[in-house]
Amino acid sequence: MERSRRKRPESLDAYDLVLRAFPLVWSLDKDQNETARSLLAQALAHDVDYPFALSLLAWCHAQRAVYGWTDAPGRDRDEALRLAQRAASLSHDDPMVLAILGAAHSFARDFDVAETHLERARSLDPNSAWAWLRSGWLDVYRERSASALGHFARFRRLSPLDPIAYMADVGVGAAHFVDGRYDDAITWIQRGLSQQPDASWALRWLVSAYVHAGRLDEARRACLRLRESHPDLTLAKVRDTWWPSAIMARILSGLRDAGLPEG
């Protein structure tokens, strides 16, 4: 973040707008995401070539696609990629921008490009906690659980009091899910949710872990929580927002057994 702050754009208005948007982007909250997108659009109106603003806006659109905050996830994925590619063409040496681009490409299912950005971010700044965090999640998506656990551990060592540490805990749970250690997955996902109860996206993992662990009553209760947070959520919408894989098939089967409708 510090390097990104030093690289101020031509317009100080754009810089101030991005600083206001930055914590909102990280909140992983639908309403704050909308506010952040508005602020970032204003920033880009002042300076169309501001890489940090472009990368944050790409991340906002990627969140909308994955967390089910849009009726057109494909359109948001495309916009995330467009913005990310524009930011990458303007900035090659900012670790925070590269880490955000790695996250955006991960959510857009463009895993090879995501890995390239995240590897460069870590190379430029080995102490970039967020680059290690997003690398862990990319490993989860690519079913590399051992590497994911190592990356999440590195994140925790670098930033033990980070307000987004819950994402690493949920990520550890997801890595255990990948390897079929469902009781361990439940423990870690619950730990993450205890820190951030509003992270309802993590309930998809938790519900499925409960089902595969043979804890169907707990799975159904967790599914009710998920549906309270996302009343319109269906299996079809989950399938459309996440990446096609063997893990996805397990998640979907768990959600189905817990009572999520097909849609």
From TrEMBL:
Protein name (database record):
Putative PEP-CTERM system TPR-repeat lipoprotein
Tell me the InterPro entries matching this sequence: TPR-like_helical_dom_sf, TPR_rpt
Q: Which UniProt keywords apply?
A: Lipoprotein, TPR repeat
TPR repeat positions:
95-128
Task: Kindly list the organism's lineage.
Answer: Bacteria, Pseudomonadati, Pseudomonadota, Alphaproteobacteria, Hyphomicrobiales
